[in-house]
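Q: What does the assembly look like in three dimensions?
Context provided by user:
Components: two
Sequences:
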Amino acid sequence: MSPVEEENPRANAALPRGLAGLWLLLLVLWIVFNASAAPAILLVGLLVASAIAWIFATRSAVWSDVLLTPRVLFHFLVYTGVFVVEMVKANLNMLRYVYAPRIDIHPGIVKINLRLRSPIGRLALANSIALTPGSLVMDIDGDTLFIHWLDVRTTDPEEATEMIAGAFDKHLGKVFG
Amino acid sequence: MAETIGSIIILAGAFFLFSAGVGLLRMPDTYTRIQAGTKASTLGNILVFLGLGFFHPDWALKLLVVAYFVLLTNPLSSHALSRAAHAVGIPMAPSTVVDALAERNAARAEKNGSS
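A: Here is the predicted structure of the complete assembly.
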């Protein structure tokens, strides 16, 4: 897949949007699981990946929001870095709560605003939030996420959005739109 | 040498998994217990995979994929559990400050009742 094709969706109008990304993901997974790139294995992988990617890209709109460009890849990597840092912070925080002589927390459920539009971007954000400092997604209602927060510091939706989702929003927005 | 580093990383992972267990016992209510279980066990698992990677460098890519699967699926189960717990009305700890979800549900019930 050349980058020119992806930046100009009209050039390959016959191919469903998002097919390339899904196809590449499946093929890489196949090669990793087989730990080999022998011609026979590669051929089977190519066929199976093409078939599955075709079926899912034509039947579901979810993948159409993921376009594979160098910029998207870059932001995905930055996002992974931010995520790892946040996750380690979350765990150290959790250790502090768990081993404190008296557990002194003020849990609660707060609302935050969703800025991401695409379903897969929202999924990624919700999963990231669940793994970071003391927050857990409980429900989604339109553009509002309900979050169980281990130590509520503000009940204002705007401030809470910044504190909980601020770190991820920017890069996920660039990746998934 | 690599095996010593791997062992230390696996030990660190085991410590996080142990802490997740302690958190499950010490936290005051269902929701905070789910939080303790989800977070500490995710990092614990990933550290164990990382340590394994030092023992078997040829598994590195497979372990990375497994780690991504854990990252994708672990939060899903915690969403499902906590949402179900809230829906059937399992009480929250007395120290709870605010419950926007219950407020939303109450507002919705009122609207449906009046119309």
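Follow-up: Chain B has a mean pLDDT of 83.
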